[in-house]
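Example 147.
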Amino acid sequence: MKQVLKIVQKLKPQAMHAAANSYSPYSGFQVGAAVCGREGTVYGGCNVENASLGITQCAERCAISTAISCGEKRGTLAELLIYTPGSKAHAPCGACRQVMHELMAEDSVVVSCCDTDDVMAWTRSEYLPDAFTPESLLDEMNPAKSS
Ligand SMILES: [Zn+2]
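Predicted structure in complex with zinc ion:
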């Protein structure tokens, strides 16, 4: 729990800033995220909705995409914080869990917070047990090599 509070203190300002920039005219649900890369660089992201709702991008994936575009590599992202204005912390969606699992560090932690003390936190195996991974895909493409 001490680690969770430390992550909230470290990443919440950037996640709140990102949430304020959210483009969410359809849901009105502002979300900000901040992810910490190697050497402590923090990258923010917000949800970016679209009239074609299926292509809406969540804040978590926006922050991770920003981190990757700035040079972070698979496995270098250690902590990700999700912030939603209001009194309740919210869990990441399934698509974000898949992206976080593939790109964040094995020992990474994901935390969700809001404007109250309500906080949720997950390890990688907690937010996506039995994940489909790049290694799963390679095993299927090269069945002889997987055994
Ligand atoms: Zn999502």
